[in-house]
Amino acid sequence: MSTGEYDPDSRVSTAEDSETDAGDGEIPRRKLELDVEITDVGPCKKHLKVAIARSEIDRQFNESIDSMKKETLIPGFRPGRAPRKLVESKLRKQVADQVKSTLLMACLEQLDEEYDLNPIKAPELDVALIELPKDGPMRFEMELEVRPDFPLPDYKSLTVQRPVKTITEADVDAQMTRFLERYAQLVPKLEGGAEIGDYITADIRFHRDGLTYNEAKETQFRLQPELRFQDGSVPKVGEALAGVKPGETRGCDALIGSSSADPTLRGKTIGVEFTVHDLKQLRLPEMNAAFLSGIGFDSRSDLREALREIVERRHWAQQREAVRREILSDLLAKTPFDLPSDLVARQEKTTIRRLVLGLRQEGLSDDDIRAREAQIRANAHESTLRSLKEFFLLAKVAEAEGIKVEDEDLEMEIERMAARSGESPRRVRSRIEKEGLVDTLASEILERKALDRILDSVKFEEVPLVEQQAVETLDQTATTAAPDEANADETGATSEASSSSPAQGNEPQG
Is residue 170 in some structural domain? Predict the structure, then answer.
């Protein structure tokens, strides 16, 4: 069985340790006599060989026997009056298990305190395989995953480029169009070819060297400059499909991410072919008094003001993300350290959830989040490796600055999330707890507070903001298996993307 998580604040004492500290009333712990050998066996991994002295085993054994003697009922004897030898013979197995467990727990605590190991997770020990010997010390070995140890770089004298942009009426007009599209009708496009913003229904085939990796039939997507799918992207799809009409077939290149189901294609370029069946376009609603009243605004100017706030908030989020990435890239370059590959693999799902939660906290729209999430998933290993390194770096800054996450921080963050989503704080808190995201949220807050502390001392150099191009996202994957397996399956994998048709809503969003 596994020891599971242990409480670093638990205390183990013996009868000889009954002296009380006059100052705080706590019972001081006696240090175990240990023989410890620690060796590095890889990035963030240490192998420990531990021997607990025989004197410690005998001491704990006697203490356990004395304790059980008082509590155990032996026929023919009053409680606590049975001969010690009789109690020992009847309870030897039970006492041995207790001694072993108690010594192991105390040993783990002492190792953590004396050697400053900073474990990433509690050690896993198969207690059943550890023997409590009749003679000599009790020995065991274990591997421990620890936090990376690196010198904290100078983070108080950085010069960082900060992208800036003056919000114009044209920006608000563009946001107005995006908002009205949520209430638009999708109608057939009867004249001309496809343009950016039109909806295309097509068969999509991913291929290379004459082999088909995956196909999606009758998939509808909106034509944008870039198309992302769950394990890669088509960066120039807008150019490739400009002017295409129903009945035509066009192709271009797709870039495969590091999380492809086919490891031979990770980071490679393959072909993607679009056979177009149908074109549709959006018909925007007339913005009259009835429409404005129906969406909760008294006038067009009120709507424009709300949309301007969204544009400004999005610009702030883009600016902060750009600054954050430059700061962390600079600091990580000055402080290289490695992480174990199995840690990165274990954390991929958690990292995706953390990054998506962070995007929601920045106030990005659902479409923006979906596009970014697809990019994160397509390159999950690199995203996770980067995210973990950023976390350890910022956690070290937080430690140096004495930054902690208090209950009040969590409550304030939940209230902010509730205000942005229009939900009650109680409902947001319930969802976070149900999805097991409390620790994730705390990590996000810790990183943000540490970054804010860094920002207090950096110097900024303002540069023009480079606008991010619009992206469409599909649930489709380019690959599901090796090419020979994919072609052997006559049905193929045709998991179609969910419709990208405009969704209804009650308030303007980014």
Answer: no
The rounded distance, in Å, linking the Cα atoms of 200 and 364 is 25
Q: Tens digits of per-residue pLDDT, 382-431? A: 878 888 999 999 999 999 999 999 999 999 999 988 887 788 999 999 98
For residue 188, give Cα distances in angstroms to 171, 244, 281, 434, 448: 28, 15, 6, 43, 47
CATH code of the domain in which 43 resides: 3.30.70.1050
Total domain count for the chain?
Answer: 3
Catalogue the long-range contacts made by 185-191 (C-beta closer than 8 Å, 24 or more residues apart): 185/282, 185/283, 185/285, 186/280, 186/281, 186/282, 186/283, 186/501, 186/502, 187/280, 187/281, 187/282, 187/283, 188/278, 188/279, 188/280, 188/281, 189/279, 189/280, 189/281
Tens digits of residue pLDDT in 66-80: 777 666 666 666 666
> Contact, 211 vs 258, CB < 8 A?
no
The DSSP H or E segment spanning 309 is: helix 300-334
Range of the domain at 307: 288-464
The whole-number pLDDT of residue 82 equals 66
Task: Quote the pLDDT of residue 426.
Answer: 92
